[in-house]
Specification:
Number of strands of chain A: 6
Radius of gyration of chain A: 16 Å
CATH class of chain A: Alpha Beta
Largest interface: A-B, 72 and 72 residues
Strand order of the largest sheet of chain A: 3-2-4-5-6
Shape of chain A: globular
Helix content of chain A: 25-40%
Oligomer: homodimer
């Protein structure tokens, strides 16, 4: 078997519009609410640009608020189904720092900020990334009801299992703003303007 | 905020030794047991080469056995914690085919072959990749007991939830061979020769 033609690498890349979106954003967002507002804004633009679902994530230094990476769901633009916002933001943060463990020695504590509770894939991705805080705009069944995305079978005590591993969960930081993004997505979906890409 | 210096992409790449390992492997493995034997062999070499844990995966055309991609756990060599064997193999298959949905129209049915039941992250990654069969050397608590890796909180009826989404689960295809790989890994771990990279 030849290797290639078997692919030997793949890339997850952010769209160009992210640069415009970040141009006026400071390097440091000391107020966590500003970090959550940023992910809601990126999520709202992401699906309109055709990159993937209405999801965004940011990795920040938990104490200072220095932004380490931003991610959006790029399943459609990258052609890779694991390229959810969390996987993208965490991979970009690890690539930037050159460390697989964002909680490693001599590193500041890192947090992942997301516009809704992670799906089952990103639940695991967050768990082993080294983050010490998960900051969520919201959680609950509304994401599946509104967007129609399958979030996968999750255990009930998902937040406890994060806490047990030393990852603090802050939930409900901007719930209504997050839901507004999903409602707009749903309107476009009902109007037949977009594709939901869950393969199964 | 400038973008870069924020990273705008990251890459998941296979190690060079994969080419040697595949040189004598036919393009097509009609017998599923040969596909499972391949993932066990790749898993056994992967941790010795220092790329990551003792885990490998293959995407194949389910009926013919044509190999579409191979993946190994490259968390340590890629520096990205989501780069488990399944995420790597699925991403490489999607990159090769230029399709995010391996179960899309005008494509043959695809299967993911793994040397043990996926962790919670790869549970979701497999679920939305478009595969129609998940073929496992084995499943059960032994992987955590032997390797000490955290596989994450999984629901009890994980296989049913795959089946409910049209993904057939074939389990126990080469259980003893898979366990032999984990036992060798454990011996090296107990001898202080390797790092388990679960951040939490």
């Amino acid at each position: 078997m030849e290797f290639p033609p078997l692919a030997s690498s793949f890339e997850i890349a952010l769209p160009d519009w992210i640069a415009d979106e970040l141009a006026e954003v400071p390097d440091v967002l000391p107020d966590r609410q500003d970090r959550v507002a940023l992910v809601n804004r990126l999520a709202a633009r992401n699906w309109r640009e055709g990159n993937g679902g209405p999801f965004a994530a940011v990795v920040a230094e938990a104490d200072t608020g220095r932004i380490v990476s931003v991610g959006v769901n790029v399943v459609l633009s990258s052609g890779v189904t694991s390229a959810h916002a969390e996987v993208t933001a965490l991979g970009l943060a690890q690539a930037r720092l050159g460390k697989w463990n964002l909680g490693g020695e001599r590193l500041p504590a890192h947090e992942l900020v997301v516009n809704w509770r992670p799906c089952v894939q990103c639940y695991g991705a967050a768990m082993w990334s080294g983050i010490t805080t998960l900051a969520l705009a919201g959680s609950g069944p509304e994401v599946e009801e509104l967007t129609t995305f399958d979030e996968g079978p999750m255990i009930d005590n998902w937040a406890e299992e994060f806490e047990r591993r030393g990852i603090r969960v802050l939930d409900g930081l901007a719930r209504e703003d997050a839901l507004a993004v999903f409602r707009e997505y749903r309107e476009a979906l009902d109007a037949g303007e977009i594709t939901v890409y869950n393969a199964r």
